[in-house]
Amino acid sequence: MTENSAAHPSAAAPVEPEELSAAEVSEQKAVRLAKRDRLIGLGLEAYPVAVPVTDTIPSVRERFGGLEADAKTDVIVGLAGRIVHLRNTGKLCFASLQSGDGSRIQAMISLAEVGEESLELWKELVDLGDHVFVTGEVISSRRGELSVMATGWKMATKSLLPLPNLHNELGEESRVRSRYLDLIVRDAARTTVLSRAKAVASLRETFTKLDFVEVETPMLQVMHGGASARPFVTHSNAFDMELFLRIAPELFLKRAVVGGIDRIYEINRNFRNEGADSSHSPEFAMLEAYEAYGDYTSIAALTQKLIQNAAFAVAGSHVVTWADGTEYDLGGEWDRISLYHSLSEAAGVEITPKTSVAVLQQLADSVGIEVAVPNHGKLVEELWEHFVKGTLERPTFVMDFPVETSPLTRDHRTIAGVVEKWDLYIGGFELATGYSELVDPVVQRERFIQQATQSAAGDVEAMPLDEEFLRALEHGMPPTGGMGMGIDRLLMAITGLGIRETILFPLVK
């Protein structure tokens, strides 16, 4: 709390947006519009193209943060920031200026330093939420508050609407719908943005050290593929053809591996026309990486390294603290368990790749699981989620999946009916998936045909047959390990936040 925590009666009081009626918002906006017009009428600027900033609030705090109370520095600075606290008294006014990173400094506007006319204009025209520029000496107030004793001030941007109440947190809906306000008033919102940036920078740094190449692949595609998902469909006027927003970059990244880019990755935006909940968003950021002459075991080790390095970059430790205060250990070697073996143990009945659909359906019916287009693989995965998923506490690679649900994955080298695929679970949700990639074009064509059959039977997430991709495979793709990981979910694993908090501007109704 600064010396200027109370609002001057003439200033618009900070209130929660949801507390204001439309009439109240209109009234406050009208008052501020009048002040804007008054500024312009006086020949002043309400929205200048620039102000003569010489220093930032964080840099001044770093340089002079240890000043004793009532100290002077003889150092003159020019600072700009948003007013988040305002107190106007007779001959001395106080304002707390906030920079984009949340750092604050006190501005003191006194009759003795700026003169009567400038002081009265301050009182008349300045509101909470305005951006202002002040120039003056860096001092410490009698209460020890780092301050600028202004010798002049200038409006940098006139705010036409009031800020939310800084003493009351915005509700989740308000935070998501008005993220710009969330960033202004809540330190945690800014921290999340910075944490995401640190995590992504760490991913790139790890890849660079391992000689991976970052590339970009198309978002608009003539055929959707690379995942089992329902796509968004659009139309190109220039080409007069139907196009799909990317559901995954996989098939293009594999083309690059065919071309000789042996270690490759992309941090991309994907779009899936599906449900939204606490861990799913229709638009999301994703990392995909492929390593020639690797397999699903080597790519699991890479994934663990990527996540652990990102956690350390954000939290300074492999033990992260989630938003609810829970400590979660991402360090050490992570568990690896068999999907079929763990399901058999949890369900109390042996389930293998040879277990019939009828037996699986009977077990699913007994626990109330419904699968729209049931086959062995989908039933096994749904049963595993029911019996096992909720029991995982440590970071865990769940290994060896049914062939029916993994059409782009190599058959297991020793277990019939299973592919070399893992899913990584952290904190109760799937964070990443990895594969020994299917590189045999003949088998890949057979898998695509099976997917087409499923599509004809009503499976809207089945993949179409992609002749261009098959042609690339026919030129020879080396043995390869591949992985995909949601960036939004990576932040969830490190921070414990829901997906709408880890995305800066999530899609909302």
TrEMBL record:
Keywords from the UniProt entry: Aminoacyl-tRNA synthetase, ATP-binding, Cytoplasm, Ligase, Magnesium, Metal-binding, Nucleotide-binding, Protein biosynthesis
Molecular function terms, GO-annotated: ATP binding; lysine-tRNA ligase activity; magnesium ion binding; tRNA binding
Gene3D superfamilies found in the cross-reference section: Bira Bifunctional Protein, Domain 2 (3.30.930.10), Nucleic acid-binding proteins (2.40.50.140)
Keyword Zinc: no
Entry annotated with the keyword Protease: no
Main location: cytoplasm
Cofactor note: Binds 3 Mg(2+) ions per subunit.
One GO cellular component term noted in the UniProt record for this chain: cytosol
Positions of Mg(2+) 2 binding: E430
PROSITE patterns: AA_TRNA_LIGASE_II
Entry's localization field: Cytoplasm
Enzyme Commission designation: 6.1.1.6
Enzyme class: ligase
Cofactor(s) required for function per UniProt: Mg(2+)
GO biological process: lysyl-tRNA aminoacylation
Binding locations of Mg(2+) 1: D423, E430
Every Aminoacyl-transfer RNA synthetases class-II family profile domain range: 201-506
Location of region: Disordered: 1-20
InterPro entries tied to this protein: Aa-tRNA-synt_II (IPR004364), aa-tRNA-synth_II (IPR006195), aa-tRNA-synth_II/BPL/LPL (IPR045864), Lys-tRNA-ligase_II (IPR002313), Lys-tRNA-ligase_II_N (IPR044136), Lys-tRNA-synth_II_C (IPR018149), NA-bd_OB-fold (IPR012340), NA-bd_OB_tRNA (IPR004365)
Catalytic activities: tRNA(Lys) + L-lysine + ATP = L-lysyl-tRNA(Lys) + AMP + diphosphate
Similarity remark: Belongs to the class-II aminoacyl-tRNA synthetase family.
Subunit text: Homodimer.
Name the UniProt record assigns to this protein: Lysine--tRNA ligase
Organism: Alpinimonas psychrophila
Chain's gene name: lysS
